[in-house]
Model the fold of this input.
Amino acid sequence: MLTIGELASYAGVTVRAVRHYHAKGLLPEPERDRSGYRRYDAAAVVELIRIRTLAEAGVPLARVRELLRAGEEEFAAALADIDRRLLAEIRQRRRHRESIARLAAGDGLALPPEVVDYLDRLRALGVDERIVQAERDGWILLAAHSPGRVPDWMARKREQIADPAFIGFFRTLGQALTRSADDPRLAGLADELAAHLTRLAEERGAGYMDDLDVEPSFAQLMDGLAFDAVPPARRLIELLRRRGWTGWTKLERVDPPPGS
Done:
């Protein structure tokens, strides 16, 4: 007869594991001897090895007892079911790992890969990081709002960032966003931006800059996000309105106020 320590050693588990299996009702507790110690026979070793093997294979302890008492066909069917569940869990964990990898990459948080590539391209083109960050936050909203439209939007954006005139607009905008809202030089940069926009509209069409086609309320939400992230943007939009342009997400021509 074996002590609990000897039983654990033969079966390749810890004494704590044996006690845990007792508590779960998986391994029957033997009667105690006259000295008050539990004594185990060889059958207990075999049963414990079977429990350990199932547990190590990923079988939940809640189902181990069922499998230990199952017939051959029932045992095979139960294992097939557990295997399917494990496979689903593996796939889910793989998706979690992919999400973690995107998080580690920074811009990958809640963004499709094509948007991350677009942001990286903006950086490579020398676009100011303030603009890149504002774009990133806006695309997080867009991707959540209309995920099915992202590929079409991105195709359009790739076309735009291949256009030197469009990148020229972004670079001038980057200069403007380095100024404080009360910087007198902001007015001159607003003149340059308005000239960029007018030229792009005349050469590429009125809808060249406003190509997202989202509802006004959603555009306002995105504008607020940009204004909070880049405070000079709000003042810049005021200056642009006096020059015949308005909006951040939905750039469009307007009649400038009288006397501007």
Q: What stands out?
A: The CA atoms of residues 119 and 136 lie 7 Å apart.
